Amino acid sequence: MTGQVAGKVALVTGGASGIGAAVAELLAREGASVVVSDVDELKGPEVVAGIKKAGGEATFLHQDVTSEPRWIEIVAEVEKRYGRLDVLVSNAGIGISVPSITDMTLEDWRRQNAINLDGVFLSVKHCLPAMRKTSTRENGGSIILMSSLAGLRGAPGLSAYSLTKGGVRLFAKSIAMECAGVGDGIRVNSVHPGIIDTPIWGKIPTEAAGRGQNAPIDPEERARFATPLARAGHAAEIAQGVLYLASDMSSYVTGSELVIDGGMNAGGVARKS
Question: 82 catalytic, yes or no?
Fold first, then answer.
């Protein structure tokens, strides 16, 4: 541990598994007190127990990110326990794939928007005032919004998901300018993972969903052909990027997008069979 975020208090939504869990664990290992929030009341406490066993400080709070009353309670609880909030990692999100946008139900459209967009909006709306209480121009807080490579480029079958993640990208830039305009010292950036080996792939129906099935996607197989580095990324690799944005090492970075995708957004490479 090098203590890159020592003394900071961080809130990580969707922190019970995948990228969120890796982020929470790394921030705690680097000295932050971490609040892990999630709807998963089984895995969330397990993540916190692991952090504490490793000598870190963490708390689990059950949270549906689409509930505004719960956001008010979450922020109040963070301030009560730790007296401040320095880092927000708005990570909670879902992905719904359909063969065509014409196959998507309005219910699924609204559910994905509620979690991926409303949840991010509410996180910033309610965490920003708390962060401003202790943030200064010289020593400011950091808001990190989890977007996706799908927020930078089109993806067949994921048009609705891309809409939400593209919205997160521009929301981050706009809030960054808002914070810079008032001089509160808070930096706002988005992170754009590519194909990362996390449990979310088992929850995204493929084209087979149109036939009433749920065939999980193998991220490693997909990444082998789709990414220049020819492999899926790991949650810990995304967490390293988040740590950089949460730490003072990124003190001059705001309104930016950190792409961690094995080179997918840059282009493609010819492979020998």
Answer: no
Q: Which of 195, 165, 164 is nearest to 260 (CA)?
A: 195
Per-residue DSSP letters for 106-120?
HHHHHHHHIIIIIHH
Task: Report the alpha-carbon angle 66-67-68, nearest 5.
Answer: 115
- At 152, list the tokens: 């930078």
73 CB contacts (<8 Å, ≥6 apart)? none
Please list the pLDDT of the chain residue by residue as tens digits (273 residues).
689 999 999 999 999 999 999 999 999 999 999 999 999 999 999 999 999 999 999 999 999 999 999 999 999 999 999 999 999 999 999 999 999 999 999 999 999 999 999 999 999 999 999 999 999 988 899 999 999 999 999 989 999 999 999 999 999 999 999 999 999 999 999 999 999 988 766 655 554 344 344 556 787 877 787 888 989 989 999 999 999 999 999 999 999 999 999 999 999 887 765
The Cα–Cα gap between 87 and 71 comes to 15
Let me know: does 90 contact 71? Beta carbons within 8 Å.
no
Please name each of the domains of the chain with its CATH number.
9-260 (3.40.50.720)
Catalytic residue (choose from 82, 161, 244, 252): 161
Give the Cα separation of 193 and 14 in Å (integer).
15
Provide CB contacts within 8 A for 28, sequence distance 6+. 34, 51, 54, 56, 57, 58
| Backbone phi, psi, residue 241, to 5° | -65, -40
**Residues ≥6 apart with Cβ < 8 Å to 57:** 28, 32, 33, 34, 51
pTM summary value: 0.93
| Neighbour count for residue 266 (Cβ, 10 Å) | 11
Secondary structure percentages of the chain, helix, strand, coil, to 5: 45, 15, 40
